């Protein structure tokens, strides 16, 4: 069966940008049943896919404003269980970037988004994660200055944190296509 996407829908853009056809999902629910974060989500993973399949602008907006896309752990349990091999973690990553681009972020996801942006910025700057820089940027974004303050000295003593940023690898591409940082 050939499915023709409406060209101004999230499912169309997901297919264009990632190659993943959300219409392949036949709603067996295995992704939602196996998802370790499903209980905290406002929409289960299978509902996200179903909303995308409707190719309805209101449903697309609902998906982009959902808390679910920010709670996805990208643990790959869903794709491991999926009989149609719909790569939901890649879809969720695309949805997070689109949510940032369109400024449709769920209010409860504020700290998650701050961490996401800080993580992406660290990767963009250094080509890999620099934990101290990530933590500093995250603390500035969220104003959670004293949260976990007693853990840092112990981590430094054990050599788990370095105050010196990593050198940028010559293999790292400076023109990263990852969205979501520096915002």
Number of strands: 0
Radius of gyration, rounded? 18 Å
Quote the average pLDDT: 90
Order of SSEs: HHHHHHHHHH
Spatial separation of the terminal alpha carbons = 42 Å
- Continuous helix count: 10
Would you tell me the structural class of the helices and strands?
mainly alpha
What keywords describe this structure?
183 residues; mainly alpha; 10 helices
Secondary structure layout:
Blueprint: H1 10-18, H2 30-34, H3 45-53, H4 57-64, H5 68-71, H6 77-81, H7 88-101, H8 110-126, H9 131-142, H10 151-157
Helix pairs in contact: 1-7, 8-9
Task: Give me a quick take on this structure.
The chain starts with 9 loop residues before the first helix and ends in a 26-residue tail after the last helix. The chain has helices at residues 10-18, 30-34, 45-53, 57-64, 68-71, 77-81, 88-101, 110-126, 131-142, 151-157. It is 49% helix and 0% strand.
Structural summary, described in words:
This protein has 183 residues and is an all-alpha fold. It folds into 2 domains: 10-105, no CATH class; 108-183, no CATH class. It contains 10 helices and no strands. It is elongated, with a radius of gyration of 18 Å. The relative contact order is 0.12.
């Amino acid at each position: 069966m050939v499915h023709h996407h409406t060209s101004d829908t999230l499912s169309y853009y997901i297919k264009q940008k990632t190659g993943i056809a959300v219409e392949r999902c036949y709603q067996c629910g295995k992704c939602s049943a196996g998802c370790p974060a499903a209980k905290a989500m406002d929409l289960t993973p299978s509902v996200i896919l179903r909303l995308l399949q409707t190719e309805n602008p209101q449903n697309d907006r609902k998906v982009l404003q959902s808390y679910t896309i920010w709670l996805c752990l990208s643990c790959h349990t869903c794709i491991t269980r999926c009989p149609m091999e719909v790569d939901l973690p890649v879809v969720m990553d695309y949805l997070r970037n689109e949510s940032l681009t369109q400024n449709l972020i769920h209010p409860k996801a504020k700290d998650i988004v701050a961490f996401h942006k800080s993580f992406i910025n660290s990767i963009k700057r250094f080509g890999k994660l620099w934990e101290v820089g990530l933590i500093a940027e995250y603390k500035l974004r969220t104003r959670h200055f004293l949260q976990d303050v007693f853990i840092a000295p112990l981590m430094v003593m054990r050599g788990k944190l370095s105050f010196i940023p990593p050198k940028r690898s010559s293999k790292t591409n400076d023109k990263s296509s990852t969205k979501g940082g520096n915002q």
